[in-house]
Amino acid sequence: MSKDLAPLLRPFACKSLNLANRVAMAPMTRMRSPGYIPDDAVAGYYRRRAEGGVGLIVTEGTTVNHVAANGYEQVPAFHGEALAGWQAVVDAVHEAGGSIVPQLWHVGGIRRPGTGPDKDVPGYSPSGCHAPGKCKGHAMSKQDIDDVIRAFAEGARDAKALGFDGVEIHGAHGYLIDQFFWAGTNLRDDEYGGSLDNRGRFAREIIAAVRAEVGEDFAIILRFSQWKQQDYSARLVETPDELAQFLAPLVEAGVDIFHCSQRRFWEPEFDGSDLNLAGWVKKLTGKPTMSVGSVGLDGDFIGNAQTGMGGDAGVSDIDELVERMARDEFDLIAVGRALLQDPQWLQKMREGRVEELAPYDKSALATLS
Ligand SMILES: Cc1cc2nc3c(=O)[nH]c(=O)nc-3n(C[C@H](O)[C@H](O)[C@H](O)COP(=O)(O)O)c2cc1C
User: What is the pLDDT of residues 292-329, one digit of tens each?
Assistant: First the structure.
C-alpha cells in the first residue's frame, strides 16, 4: 500500500503553467499519427490522461519544420496541416481540465535515409555522427544550424498560438540537441564544438530564439539527460561543478524548468549525496525541475523508436518518490509507461486501488487506449 500522495498533489505554477498537481505524463512517441497528423484517436488518448487527473501532459515528441527533423513513420509533425490536429488535442485536454505542452523534437543523426517523410534526406547532426565512431550522415553547416533554430522558434510560436500551456524542447537521449551537447557525437572545431560551453551553444541559441518568439511569460521546459539511447552509461558531466557550468548559460538563455531524464529516478547523480539529477539541477540553478524514471514500476525503460520501446515491468509502490517530493528535492515528476498502460494510474494510486494496476507490457503500444 502506498503512502498518502499529498506531496505529489500540491498545485504548481510557473509562468504560463498552472498545474493542479505535480504529476506529468512523460513524452512518449506512439507513431500513430497517420500522415504525420494527430487525429481524433490521438486527441482521445491525451484526453483520457487529463481525465485521469495528471497535472501536465508532455506530448510525444513532435517534429519541427526542418527537412530532417523526423525519422519515423506516423510521428506527428508540428507544422503545416498537423497544427489543426494539435488544436483538437489541446482543446480536448483543456476541456478535461488538464494542461499540456508539446515536446518539440529534431531527431538529428538518428534519422535513417529511407524513412519518412522525406525519404532521401540523410540524418543531420553536428559532425555527421549518430553515435561515437558512426559517422555516415550529414554534418550540419552554419546555415543548417540557423534553419533548425528558426524551426524550433516557429514551433514554439505556434504552440503558444494554439493555446498550449508552455513548450518543452527535447534536448535529451542522444537526438539532435544532445548530439551537440555530447562530445562523443560533436567533433566540430567551430564555435559549436570543443568545450562544454561551445557544445551548449546550439541549445542556447534555440532557447533564446524560442524566448524571443513566445515572450517572457510562456514557460519553456528543457529536457536533457546524461544517458543516451546510443549508450546508457554516457555522461555529459562528471561533477556538480561541471553540471553548474553546463546549466548556467541555459538558464541565462531562458529555460524556466529543467526536465532531467533518468531511467531510475532514485539513483544519486554524484557520489557523496543522494540527490538525483533533478535534485542537483534544482540546487544548482534555483529553477524548478522535473524528474522521471521507472515511477510505479520495478523495471527500467529500454529501447528507442527504431528498436521499439520496451521495458516491461511489474507494479511497484511510490513511497520513495513521495518522500523525495515531500522534501522538495524536485518539483514535478513525469510518469511514462505506467500512464501509457493505464490512463487512470494516478486516480488508482490516489485511491489506493493498487491491485487494479496492471504491469507494463509493451503490447500496450499496439493501441492508443
Ligand atoms: C513508448 C515510449 C516512447 C517514448 N518516447 C519519448 C519521446 O518521444 N521523447 C522523450 O523525451 N522520451 C520518450 N520516452 C522516454 C519517456 O519519456 C521516459 O523518460 C521513460 O519511459 C522513463 O519513464 P518511465 O520509466 O516512467 O517509463 C519514451 C518512452 C516510451 C516507453
Answer: 999 999 888 877 666 666 678 899 999 999 999 999 99
Residues in the chain, pLDDT under 70: 1-3, 304-310
Residue 132's CATH number? 3.20.20.70
Q: Determine the atom of ligand 1 nearest the C-alpha atom of 337.
A: 27
Query: What domain range is 31 assigned to?
Result: 6-366
pTM exceeds 0.70, yes or no: yes
Q: How many domains is the chain built from?
A: 1
In a domain, 304, yes or no: yes
Compute the residue count for the chain. 369
- Out of 45, 46, 175, 360, the active site residue is 175
Q: What cell was used for 272?
A: 557523496
Residue among 173, 262, 301 whose CB has most ligand 1 atoms within 8 A, to mutate:
301
Mean pLDDT for the chain overall: 96
Residue-level pLDDT at 183:
98
Cα separation, 54 vs 111, in Å, equals 32
Q: Rounded distance, CA 127 to CA 199, Å? A: 12
How many angstroms separate the CA atoms of 64 and 153, rounded?
9
CA distance 51 to 348: 12
The atom number, within ligand 1, closest to the CA of 309 reads 1
pLDDT in tens, 227-264: 999 999 999 999 999 999 999 999 999 999 999 999 99
Residue 161 lies in a domain: yes
In a domain, 1, yes or no: no
Return the residue matching grid coordinates 529516478: 265
Q: Is residue 306 part of a domain?
A: yes
Q: Is 46 a catalytic residue?
A: no
